[in-house]
Amino acid sequence: MEPNTGTAETRSNGTASDGDDVAALESLQFTDEIHRLISATTTNNASSFTALLELPAPEAVELLHSPESAKLMAAPAPNIEDFKASFHFPSNSGLIERAARFSLFAGVGNNNNNTSNSPETPSNNPSANPQKAVKSEPAETESSEPLVSDPTVEKRCIKRKDREKKVKGSTKKSKTAMNESSEDAEKLPYVHVRARRGQATDSHSLAERARREKINARMKLLQELVPGCSKISGTALVLDEIINHVQFLQRQVEILSMRLATVNPRIDFDLDSIFTTESGSLMDSNFPSMVMPLVWPEVQVNGNRQQYQQQWHFDALQQAVWGREEVCNNYITPENSLLSYDSSANSATLHSNQMKMEL
Amino acid sequence: MRPPSSLRQEFLKKWMMGLQRYSTSKKNMSILERKKAIKLSADVAIASARNGTTCWSRALIANGYSKDGGDDKHLVEQILGPESERLIMKKVLTGGASVCNKRMRSKKILKRSCGIQRTRKFAPQVALASSIAKRLVRKRTQILRSLIPGGEFMNDVTLIEETLDYIISLRAQVDVMRSLASASELASEP
């Protein structure tokens, strides 16, 4: 295998006809980048990282907190790679750039977003690879020079600079990717936008188009998030669903707070007492599955539970809940729960001690 | 999609912290008072999980802060933690409502003055599908703005981002509250 250095720019790499090589090289570079990112953000609490590992949409939401680096993940990730295909091995420069950007963001304190990007990139890039491999070749043949500052339609759109990757001749989708990728770039003055064939090129319509693309990408994320929205087409109906969902959730909060008010004469809930209530009926609720990460550090399925027996008297319950979790909770997976347990190990003991002291 | 368990854990922690506050204060609250207290502490807790990075969280915290009674202020302080509370309240109060209010008010005035002319010109286009669609979308975004806390101060793009984040946080909140409610109901059965 070739060394996976960031500067491995070779035309030979570009002939990514050998999918296997590409994939293997990609995986090497992914692990590399992951290590880099992890080391760069070790100060992060592990919980956020593992939490972000769980779901793509919430991750995307986390990413939205950073200056629009989410767009990278939203749609154009495969397309962005097309650009780089012309002069670098695609994933290389893409990953390196993102890593550079992340380290920049890390200083700003957007560590969460950085770590969230790292699990995303490996997941996105493998899917992007075959496309890259195919698309890079025509892109390459068309462009004679790697780095291009084309005579494009320049536009001071959102005061971000473009990423100086303009492959000559790549049209259509590439522009939207360019727009969004350039918006994602670090806060630099311009964004360079290329007009599509047959479309107006004045700055206003370009700005509008860029804005519309942004909105559409976010709407797609929302569609994924709200159940039942992915089949609906049309912004108004999707917005309807979203509104209904938000209203439903808000109503749920009201109802639940009423329930909680009625169930307990005292307003502070004694979690310990709730736990030590010996009832197999606790298995029916999701509470143990959720709170277990909170108060049961390092639950192991086959491991020794003696140390916890004294504290919680829940030996059998533990076993049962473990089995139950995988059945009851539709979304949780064993790996997820293990991850969350491990990550909450420290916070769990602290919290349980704190709770005991307070109550 | 399921909210990340870290979010839920954090929410539960902060919520419990907030509720502790009430145990020390007056006893024998009526049921409605209890419900309000629970809801308020839950809202502030889930908002503080975002630590002032999102607009809706700041708006929620501002809501919790400005209610009458020093109790609620202390609640916010307790949940947020003293240092971050200072930072967040700074963000809330300065970058927040007053400035946005003025901006939105002037925007509305401008729109109204322009809109009068606009409708006169474009009245015949009523039948156009795109304009109908646009009108529908605009109505929906108005409704959405009223739902999301602090939504009146956001532009379209921010609104959608905030909605995303808000939905996830709401889901986490509902999950935790539901679990706690069912667990305590079961615990208090006999």
UniProtKB/TrEMBL annotation, chain A:
<dbReference type="InterPro" id="IPR036638">
    <property type="entry name" value="HLH_DNA-bd_sf"/>
</dbReference>
<feature type="compositionally biased region" description="Low complexity">
    <location>
        <begin position="110"/>
        <end position="130"/>
    </location>
</feature>
<feature type="compositionally biased region" description="Basic residues">
    <location>
        <begin position="157"/>
        <end position="175"/>
    </location>
</feature>
<keyword id="KW-0805">Transcription regulation</keyword>
<keyword id="KW-0804">Transcription</keyword>
<dbReference type="Pfam" id="PF00010">
    <property type="entry name" value="HLH"/>
</dbReference>
<feature type="domain" description="BHLH">
    <location>
        <begin position="199"/>
        <end position="249"/>
    </location>
</feature>
<feature type="region of interest" description="Disordered">
    <location>
        <begin position="110"/>
        <end position="185"/>
    </location>
</feature>
<dbReference type="GO" id="GO:0005634">
    <property type="term" value="C:nucleus"/>
</dbReference>
<feature type="region of interest" description="Disordered">
    <location>
        <begin position="1"/>
        <end position="21"/>
    </location>
</feature>
<keyword id="KW-0539">Nucleus</keyword>
<dbReference type="InterPro" id="IPR011598">
    <property type="entry name" value="bHLH_dom"/>
</dbReference>
<feature type="compositionally biased region" description="Polar residues">
    <location>
        <begin position="1"/>
        <end position="16"/>
    </location>
</feature>
<dbReference type="GO" id="GO:0003700">
    <property type="term" value="F:DNA-binding transcription factor activity"/>
</dbReference>
<dbReference type="InterPro" id="IPR024097">
    <property type="entry name" value="bHLH_ZIP_TF"/>
</dbReference>
<dbReference type="GO" id="GO:0046983">
    <property type="term" value="F:protein dimerization activity"/>
</dbReference>
<protein>
    <submittedName>
        <fullName>Transcription factor bHLH48-like</fullName>
    </submittedName>
</protein>
Automatic annotation (TrEMBL), chain B:
<dbReference type="InterPro" id="IPR059002">
    <property type="entry name" value="IBH1_N"/>
</dbReference>
<dbReference type="InterPro" id="IPR044660">
    <property type="entry name" value="IBH1-like"/>
</dbReference>
<protein>
    <submittedName>
        <fullName>Transcription factor IBH1-like 1</fullName>
    </submittedName>
</protein>
<keyword id="KW-0805">Transcription regulation</keyword>
<keyword id="KW-0804">Transcription</keyword>
<dbReference type="GO" id="GO:0006355">
    <property type="term" value="P:regulation of DNA-templated transcription"/>
</dbReference>
<feature type="domain" description="IBH1-like N-terminal">
    <location>
        <begin position="5"/>
        <end position="63"/>
    </location>
</feature>
<dbReference type="Pfam" id="PF26576">
    <property type="entry name" value="IBH1_N"/>
</dbReference>
